[in-house]
Design a protein that fits this description.
There is one protein chain. The protein is about 15% helix and about 30% strand. The protein is α+β, with helices and mostly antiparallel strands. It has one domain (about 5-15, about 30-194): Cyclophilin. Strands 1-2-7-5-6-4-3-10 form an eight-stranded antiparallel barrel. Strands 8-9 form a two-stranded antiparallel sheet. A hairpin with a 2-residue loop joins strand 8 (about 170-175) and strand 9 (about 175-180). It is globular, with a radius of gyration of 15 Å. The protein starts with a helix and ends with a strand.
Length: about 190
């Protein structure tokens, strides 16, 4: 489904960006806070509603509808990102709503610890799937990598959990690459503050 995203994985992993860039300032654009309870621990994410209102509204709807509950981190690439939000443990994609407009031109960058929307090669094709950057991925930013990938929040606690996820062994499953051998389950996602 995420053809361009999959092909960019190789290019971005080879390009790299310095790991010393600072993240967006904590608390800037404070919006809803979401906790992802995974089989490896909890990840808390502060959403940037002021910078990505369409994306945040879309993500929160999926959270409130329990869409993410029981899905897996289905694409895990060391020194790049971890992706979730659409597949069950059998690598069957869950139905989703229509795609949203790409808000990558919002000034937020794909830095380590940020969360962004996954999409196909069409800029306005993001639905439910998201990824967490495990390093600075400048090639995914608007204007650097074309239309870019819309950042809409950042991890405020649980980056150690993200690092544990990115360290799991992966292989091929159901026609997909970089799938964890032992499923990393997103047990539940919930909004904890608005």
């Amino acid at each position: 489904m995420n053809v361009l995203f999959a092909s960019m994985v190789v290019a971005v992993a080879q390009m790299g960006a310095p790991a010393t860039q600072p993240a967006q300032p904590a608390g800037a654009g404070a919006g809803p806070v979401v906790v992802l309870e995974t089989s490896l621990g909890a990840i808390t994410i502060e959403l940037k509603q002021d910078k990505a209102p369409i994306t945040v509204e879309n993500f929160v709807k999926y959270v409130n509808e329990k869409h993410y509950d029981g899905t897996i981190f289905h694409r895990v690439i060391p020194d790049f990102m971890v992706q979730a939000g659409g597949m069950d443990a059998s690598m069957i994609e869950k139905p989703s709503r229509p795609p949203i407009r790409n808000e990558a031109k919002n000034g937020l960058r794909n830095l380590r610890g940020t969360i962004a929307m996954a999409r196909t090669n069409a800029p306005d094709s993001a639905k439910a799937q998201f990824f967490i950057n495990v390093k600075n991925n400048a090639a995914l930013d608007y204007g650097v990598g074309g239309a870019g990938y819309a950042v809409f929040g950042e991890v405020t606690s649980g980056m150690d959990v993200v690092d544990r996820i990115v360290a799991v062994r992966t292989g091929n499953k159901g026609g997909h690459q970089n799938v964890p051998i032992e499923p990393v389950v997103l047990k539940t996602a919930r909004v904890v503050s608005k």
